[in-house]
Every structure is written in structure tokens, then in C-alpha cells.
Amino acid sequence: MLTTTDPIDQRFGLARRVTLPGPLKLDSGALLAPVEIAYETYGTLAPDAGNALLVCHALTGDQHLASAHPRTGKPGWWQRMVGPGRPIDTDRFFVVCANVLGSCMGTSGPASTDPATGRPYAMDFPVITIRDMVRAQALLLDHLGVARLAAVVGGSMGGMQALSWAATYPDRVPAAVVIASTARHTAQNIAFHEVGRQAVMADPNWRGGDYYDGDPPAAGLAVARMAAHITYLSEAGLTEKFGRRLQSRERKSFGFDADFQVESYLRHQGLAFTDRFDANSYLYITRAMDYFDLAEEHGGLLANAFRGTGTRFCLVSFDTDWLYPTAESRSIVQALNAAGAPASFVELSSPYGHDAFLLDSPDLDRVIAGFLGAVR
After folding, report:
1. Which of 148, 265, 363, 375, CA to CA, is 20 to 30 A from 205?
2. Cα 159 from Cα 181, distance rounded (Å)
């Protein structure tokens, strides 16, 4: 039986959690049931349900798009972008953001209870893919009565989901905005993720993923976050913010203290992350990103993913993003052109690297507002 928790009033939005009976068939062949999905909505759904816009979050993001995070108290991760009169205008759109499958902020994942055992799934949770995340979102939209979106918008891993939406449900997505993303991971992307996974699994507290009754592998997860966070920044940005500045003028002996300011910054990022994220979810989601290869899903040719589509695409990259450099976006645009799909593309200048799409960027605001302004 389908159940929904009472909505919680938040600034500009409603936080909800729904239990869908399923089963959800995954790419691995496994069936997941029930399927819990945590999500937030902003704005009002039109009588014909034609104004729904889905925002897909990145690896360590969540459904708290434009309202305060209940655990950290920090503003929503894209609060500057979503709201009345903002580029994603809630006076016009009914905006939905769902926590992805496999995550730890209310949607089914490794920390969820396995109905067969009454204990957390841990590493018995089935393997998931980006396309599985999209299928779970489609179930949620079915529950909300949304047969067709006005648009789907996503950055980084959210961009992967936006691409997968357009390829998997082309009739439900007339417009897609893909920001700082890629159609597949390179060997270097996979290598960085593997370093993080190994850091988690090397932590004695990981215990094969069965740590929910004890201390979590916080030290390993913090190191994983530190390594990943470096890839989200640019050398110019790090140099401008920290350079080689020491914490103090006194040179310390080698040890566990952070001598350089950049060391202290990374350690803070790592420790803060462990307060809000589950280590097993990190393993599952990074693996899903590594598996993502939209061309492979369509006979080895990326253009095949978009042939015959009626979706209009807007792709955005940043010139200092070395995690998903502009060449990755260009390859998607070339495939869209080969498939005859309408696409616009822009490379924006920013000193902030991959994370630029999350930070103040008037140029990005103008691009998104302009593209969505043409959505009917």
C-alpha cells in the first residue's frame, strides 16, 4: 500500500517521503521492493500537471535543494538558483528534487532496512546504476501525477541523470539542461573514485559494510571526501584562496598537525562530510557513476541514445573544470548533432573548477533562465 508522510513546511518548499510498493526492476536484474523516496517540492503543480520541473542532484547532494538542510542547518545546495523570480522560477514551475536511489537522506539505500532480515541492507543492497536512479524518479513522478516534465535540470552526476532521462524517457522530457557533466567516466575519473572507496574499506570500522550497530568508518570516509574535493576545485582557485600559506609563522615538526591552510581546509571538508553521509552509500553511488556509459547502453554509439528525440538540450561547461572538462560536453553535443537533436552549448569562464555550477555565477543564471524561458 502506498503511504506518504505528512509534509513538513520549509522555506519555499515541502519535504516529503513516500513508500512505493514497487517492485523496481534494476539493471542488475534485482527487484527492489518497497522503494522509499525522499523528495522536496517547490511551487504549485498546475491543474494539467504540465509545469513540473525535475532537478537532479550530484554525488553528495540531496533533496534539500532550496531549503535549509535539517541536519547541518545550511541553506539548500542550489538556493540561489531556485525560487520566485530566480532562474528556476517557482512562480512558474513546480520544482521536484528527489534524493537518489542508493543515498542516505531518506531514499532506499544500504542503510535502509532490508524487509527480509529486519536489519540494514549494508552491502546486500543491490548494485545500482544511474538509469536505476532515473527509473526510481519516474516512479515518484507517476505517484505525483506527472506524466510529462516541462524540463529536467542537473549538474555533475545530476547531468548524467538528465541525459539518462532524455535517453530512457524521451516522451516525458521536452527539455534538458546538462551542466558540468559527461556521458561516461574516463579512466582518471574511475581512478579517483577507487582511491576514495579503498580509503573507506581500509578503515577498520568499515567491517565489510556491517557497521550500523557501531562506529562508522568516519576516518576512511573523510579521506575519500578530501581526495574527491580536490577534483571539484581548480588549481587557480586553490592558489588564490590558500596559496602556500601556513597556519602560523612557526614551522611545525612533521606529524599530524595541519601546517598549511589548504590542509586544514581539506580536513574540515572531510570531517564535516562524515556528519551527514553514509560510507556505504558513497561506495554504491561512486560505483554507479563509474558504470555510467550512455553510449554502451545504446549499441556503443552515443548518438543512438538521442535518435528521434524531441528533447531540446542545453549543455554548459566551465573552462577550469578538469573533472569533466569542456571536451566531455563537446562530445555530447557532437552526438546530439549527429542524431539531429536540437542543442545549444556554452563554455563559461570561472576560476572555481567543477564546483562553479554550485557557486555564484551570473552567466550560468542567464543561460538557465534564458533556456527555461523558452520552455512551453
Report:
1. 265
2. 5
Residue 13 pLDDT? 59
| 321 classed as catalytic | yes
DSSP, res 251: P
Active site residue 143: no
| Whole-angstrom distance, CA of residue 40 vs CA of residue 63 | 6
* Identified catalytic residue from 62, 132, 290, 321: 321
pLDDT tens profile 189-198: 999 999 999 9
Separation CA 285–CA 290 (nearest Å): 9
pLDDT tier, 72 (very low <50, low <70, confident <90, very high otherwise): confident
Check if 344 is active-site.
no
Query: Does residue 102 come out as left (phi exceeding 0), alpha (psi in the -120 to 50 range) or beta?
Result: left
Cis peptide, bond prior to residue 23, ω within 30 of zero: yes
The cell numbers describing 100, all together, are 537518489
Neighbouring CB atoms inside 10 A of 71's CB total 12
Which cell is 298 given?
545504446
How far apart, in whole angstroms, are the C-alpha atoms of residue 65 and residue 63? Answer: 5
287 carries a ligand binding annotation:
no
Domains of the chain: 3-185+294-373 (3.40.50.1820), 189-286 (1.10.1740.110)
- What φ, ψ does residue 144 adopt, rounded to 5°? -80, -5
Distance CA 168, CA 125 (A): 24
Residue 355 annotated as lining a ligand binding site = yes
For the whole model, what pTM was predicted? Answer: 0.93
Cα separation, 224 vs 196, in Å, equals 4
86-97 pLDDT, tens digit each: 999 999 999 999
Task: Give pLDDT, residue 252.
Answer: 53
Residue among 57, 64, 193, 354 flagged as catalytic: 354
- Per the prediction, the chain carries an average pLDDT of 93
Q: Which of 103, 108, 156, 281 is catalytic?
A: 156
